[in-house]
Amino acid sequence: MMARFWRFARPYRGTFVSGFVFLALTNALAAGIPWLLRGAINGMERRVGVTALMAYAAAMIGLALAQAWVRTLSRLRILGASRRVAFDIRNRYFGHLQRLGASYYDRHRTGDIMSRGINDVQILQTFYGPGVLNFANTLIAYTVVLTLLIRIDPWLTAVALALLPFLGLGVNLLSRRVYLRSLGVQEQLARLSARAQENLSGIQQVKIYAQEEREIASFRGLSDDYRRHNLALAWDRGLMVAVIGAFTGAGTLLVLWIGGSHVIEGRIRFGDFVAFNAYLGQLAFPTVALGWTINLFQRGAGALTRIHEVLDTEPDVPSPLDEPSPNDLPIDGDIEIRDLHFAFGGTESDARGPYPLRGLNLQIPRGSRVAIVGPVGSGKSTLVNLLARVYPVPPGTIHIGKIDITEIPVGQLRQSIGYVPQEAFLFSRTLRDNIALGRPDAADHEIARAVDLARLTGDVDAFPEGLETLVGERGFTLSGGQRQRATLARAALRDPRILILDDSLSSVDADTERAILDALERDLGDRTCILISHRPSTLAGFKRIVVLDHGRVVEDGTHEELLERNGVYARLFQQRRIEEQLGQS
Amino acid sequence: MSAQAQEDALGKAYDARLVRRLAAYARPHRGLIVLSVVLLFAGSAASLTQPWLIQQAIDGYIATGTATGLAVPALLFLATLIVELVFSVLQVWTLEKTGQNVIFDLRHALVSHLQGLPSAFFDRTPVGRLMTRLTSDIESLNEAITSGLILILADAIKLAGIVVILLWMDWRLALVTFAVLPPILVLTWLVRLRVREAYRGIRAAVARLNSFLQENVAGMRIVQLFSRESAHFDEFRELNQDHLRAQLLGVRYESIFSAVAELMGSVTLAAIVWAGGVRRLDDAVTFGTLVAFIEYAGRFFRPVQELSQRYTIMQAAMASAERIFGLLDTRSTIFSPVEPVRLLSRPRGEIAFENVTFGYREDLMVLHDVSFRIAAGERIAVVGWTGSGKSTLIRLLARLYDVQNGRITLDRVDIREYALPDLRRSIGVVLQEPFLFAGTVAENLTLGDPRVQPATARAAAQAVGADRFIERLPGGFEATVHERGSNFSVGEKQLLSFARAIAFDPAVLVLDEATSSVDPETERKLEAALEKTLEGRTAILIAHRLTTVRTADRILVLHQGRLVELGSHEELLRMERGVYRALHHLQDPISAADRNYKS
Lengths: 585, 599
Known about the structure:
By secondary structure, chain A is an alpha/beta fold. Chain A has 19 helices and ten strands.
């Protein structure tokens, strides 16, 4: 664990060391001030002159100024280094997230990944910053102050020291409880927020089902839990403050009583008594900090483990980031799939991955247009995802342009494939940036063509700022159909050798879809196009229809052939045909 | 002011009007507040006695060399310490309890108020902004209660107490001590302001960084499919760099602040040593007084340092209160009448639109003068191109919006005369964009309504063919549904919300393109099931696919917000140049097959 902590700190070891040096200097200077106070008071007893007193006061201010300067430097060094360490960790974390494939994201919830990237990195930043700083400061302060305390009154020191372990232990226990309780509070707040978010975004459903009362009651219950957690936390926080107060108070009391007796007995002088009290005060914070840093070390170790769980996960598909930059060799659009099996490995949570494939065989010659159809769970989406190697593909099962796709650099493979997913995802940037995602250098006329192909031109003109309209979560709200067409334009702009539409026109109405498919037909030429759809009218427009069921191809042929075959596909159409005849009679 | 500027604005630190409204929420908890204030004063008094006891011990015993009796001030000191600490724990807790109770009530008021606001309000208000009201705005009010207003008053009284005690002990030394304060106060205040600004910068940078991360994690597949990894990494690095810069600025001012705070203590100490020492040499003050001065001065700094922080808390709280009350003052435009007409537990389901005109915006009408009548038990299909106003009809019927002109009746009574829950319970709507609540599958079907039995829910799931995939889920009907049903496909969500509508056994069933993402085979089963479930109900079907439409008794064709055709399938097909005929021809699968795409 120490080695892991050290690995991130290593680049800044020089900064940390100079920070420690300044920290030692700060403590030395700080220790000088009560020493001067002692001298001044002892001087007053001896009736020294006004000038001598002034010299003491001036020296105190001098030390205080020097201390302020050095103290600032020590904090700048150490806290600054901690921020840089956090910066590095964040970059590594995000860089690694980019290397992990879809299977990772199927198994892990966005919230969890975010929490590691935000909260855990924050804990580590606190560990490397205030944590390391206070730990070092405690060691130094104890060394310096204890030496001086023993010099003043060894007996009194021994008595006072007996108190310290209690304080350290008390703070450690309480700060752990405070930490756990504040985690509980955070969790309650997250639940409360999730509930409110859901309620507000589903408000139409709430209204339609007249669920307002139930929603209010359920929210009230969560709100009450949250209140209880907060109160428990407040109690422990209050206790923590009290424990610290008890320590400083008890220290003063000891000095007053035992130290006072020592003065009366003549064992120490009055100035020693005052200085002793001041020194003991200087130990209070480092002791509190020690309890806190021990606890922080435990949390930091947990955070580091969680970050490493991500960093140590090997990507199951190589990332283009780790490959030589793709050459521009276009990939031929011939697809050959032989005995393809795929099963999504053991699920850790209740998140659900892609449906399995069980020995799928399929050949799609370059330039063909193929529609894929099949019931839910038949593996349609899995199949097209595997073509882009979003999930790991067993070697020797998929060949594109006669090459095994596991031998094609992933970046190059994906550049040749235009994939339009089922759920249209737009980033919070302008519509232009979203469409030009795969080709940021695209010229205006190329973008206009892609927009036109996706039948989005009319919509774009109606947007407040046309292509420059900010879309996505924090921007202008697009309808489901508009989002789907925008993602189609995005894929089309890359001019891919293979275009895949994964049920990606479901929110587009039939006539617009027809127009889009007609335009695609004109534009695609010898590029390959694979479309998944549920719409009979769409399917019927395709020359070749492949029917999947239970992870296998069960039927393959033209619309007419499949109807004649009287199988799965025909069943889908039977009823419509009868209706058709009834309609005409 | 722009929406964003409004979110960031800091208000005045004190606004009598807002404080009065807040006080209304605090009043039920005034007992706690009074208790807290009493504890606060008693604790402060105990704490302020301590330096005086030290003075007594020094001057009475230690300085004079009298050993007997030193225990008296020492034990008294112990007593004040115990009182101070016990009271402080109790005080923190009572104040927190007050704050928590107030914001609990306020949060409840906000959520209840939000449930009653009309859909039009939610159309123009982003959910994120409402979430801010419910979380951070409310939290900032809690902070104002637990570490704002009351503590500012307490601190002020404590400071005044120290000033009076010091002047009383030795006014000359007191004046010298106070003289050191102003320059140091100004200095800390200035640094504090910088710290505050730096923190604001950090918060903004963190928010940008996090939303970038969030979006990229959610859309990672797209980033990878479009090979945008290195470009997005560069963007992330840049945001991270901005964040680092903001952090380092924060570190700088924070470091300076901590040094200045310490400097303040040492300089005051030096002042007391010098001025006090001179007076000591003249025997004008005792050693006890000197030590007590040092102790009191130490107690002076904390409240002074915290004052600027408390000031910020109050400013933030006032701005939050302004926004929260603004939301609470938003009036609902759609509500149940005072004396609603009672709706039969099982209405007949006769519906009429009479000259209905409506637009989401005043200047842009979506429906123009639409009139039609649906008999009880009749099945009506609504067709028309995208944007013709089909979905709007449904939203009006469920009173998510109110008509601008004309009226809608259910069983011959204007729907505005029914209580809203009654009306909505008698109309089952399956919306185009299905929505699942977090919880279990079963909860999504019953919505916790006791009138829906688990068996009914299961039967409903079976009727729509959802049982097939539900049984495959881990836990079946008890399987977990994530927020917004993110772990279900669109088709599955549609089936579940369909089942939910049926489980509620409504008199009127409305399907708004409810099966667009369901595969054909499931849809075929669904249609068969529909036959059974629609029996004895009035049904309104909106569909892209015309196969469903043919089974309807009558078809209503909307075009650009107007009712253009109404009749049976055969009647409409006979209309030359009819909209329905055109739509029908376009979607007919057999004729489409004639125009095969060449390959």
